[in-house]
Amino acid sequence: MAHIGDLVAEMLAQYGVELVFGMPGGQTTALHDGISRRTDRIRHVLMRDERNAAYAADAYARLTGKPGVCDVTVGPGANLLPAGFIEALNASIPMIGIVGELPLDWLSLKDKGIASQGFDQLSFFKTISKDAWLVPSVSALPDLIRTAFRVATSPRPGPVALIIPHDVFDAEWDEAALTISIDDRAIRAPFVRSAPVGSAVADAVTLIRKAKRPAVIFGGGVHGADAAPAACDFAERLQGLVVTSLTGRGAVPETLPYAAGALNPLGAWAAIELVKEADLLIWCGSKASQNTALNWTLPLPEQATITIDSDPDEHGRTFRPTVPLFGDIREALGLLNAALEPQQHGEWLARIAAVKAEGEALKQVEIDSEQIPISPPRAMAELAKRLGDDDIVISDASFSAGWIANFLPARRAGRSFLYARGQGGLGYSTPAAIGAAATLPGTRIVTVAGDGAFSYTIGELATQAQQNQRVVNIVLNNGRLGWIQLWQEIFFKNVQSALLESQSCAPSFADAGTAMGLKGFYVEKPDDIGPALDAAFAYDGPSVVEIRIDDLATPIHSFKRRMREGAATAKPRPGTVYKLRDHKISPDLAE
């Protein structure tokens, strides 16, 4: 007879979930048994570590718009999910965690692990998700699964946890007595869409028409709303500066003349310089976070602002917008596009072109470097030559995000770059590549990570090999935690806890990859980068390309200097204090 694991697997399959990422335990084995009987519609990807299951599910969700599903068992499995859950929560990524639990009549014994592996999982997940539920009975489960999909995909999307007790999972499923159904509107995010009120749209159009130097900042919410085509149309009508957050990259092609790259301390120099000259900032699907708002120095007091977001809490959180457009991003852009005629900003476009050219000249100096250890821009430029339009690039946290943003342009509209910016934690790229490769079989997946980040999840290389995935893992190895070394050197003149190797111990990531069944390549000379990448790209399976890089290199423009040559004179400053500012129409936009 069928069991409740069959019911869960069947409902997941009916919701269009093709992949579940996770690690089984005794309490969740019924789920795996149910999936095994439906492999024509859904399959399980076994991970080496539960935290990596969430990262793999995160990549699946970003590439499909559907909730990524991960499964873990009670206790030690559950308590490894927070890193991935918080990443998804902060980045608004739909995700469903299926979590095992002690039998219902054991729950009073969960405290202090009296019952093995027990702890208060419901309270735990309530703090790191949109919502979490403990399934109280077999009859309640179908409705809670429907609720999980609805909440995960409703504005603002995010992760939810469905905690299923062992005895519920193992119970028999009487299919005649307990029938199931799904809500097909919640198969992918957003579950529902709304539109801004007409008067707000009219006010926004009026403000845009008056602007002489408009700029739009596209965030990750553009991709979450499947709004890249509408964003491209709007950018073409605006004829002003276009920048993105890191997660917003691909909202428009960065090859367009008015697109200046990623707005972030790790991002494009031209974007940072030009955005300060705008008289109107349009924040579209961007939460004006610390990095995108340049430590909340943006907007400037004289800049008028428009915010476009489906989350009402984002309108006025760090500044008071001149015009808030509360509604779905795709719907809002559609209304603006219908009302706005193409604008003319010849002088502004000429200024954008000039600053971009200056930025490209600065980058070319780094690209042309013949130094040993290798300059990261040289490596990234070689990678850029080989990337195809359909390739997916996954960034790990820290400096890798900057090297990618500056030297790997988004050539097409759509989500072809995945960044772990919701939490900014190390160790995202390798497991996310597993999720991406499983989601898009045959597509080349390229990861870029520092040696510190790569070390976090190196065990999952075995999963890439087992799945024979087409993944090229690029490790920029400087033998240390680059960000920490920079911080300690500049602010304390004392590097103490950033070194990851010594004369007696220098890990080889290429050799580690080879030992786990991947192809390994080690590069320490600039002329060897291209041949190693060519070999890795030609290989029909996963590979590791380890590149020895300059340990002083940084993508942060304000810190581009040789720290050990005495040029680092910056002093630490206390955290930025900001207050709510009223961004009224600037003199240029006044009646």
What does this structure look like?
The structure is a single chain. The chain has helices at 4-14, 29-36, 50-64, 82-91, 121-126, 141-153, 166-170, 198-210, 221-224, 228-238, 269-275, 329-339, 346-367, 376-386, 399-407, 429-439, 451-456, 461-467, 482-492, 509-515, 529-538, and strands spanning 19-22, 43-46, 68-72, 95-101, 131-134, 159-165, 214-218, 241-244, 259-262, 280-284, 304-309, 323-326, 392-395, 417-419, 445-450, 471-477, 519-523, 543-548. The protein has a six-stranded parallel β-sheet, with helices on both faces. It is an alpha/beta fold. It has 21 helices and 18 strands. It has three domains: 4-186, 3-Layer(aba) Sandwich (Rossmann fold); 198-355 and 579-589, 3-Layer(aba) Sandwich (Rossmann fold); 368-560, Rossmann fold.
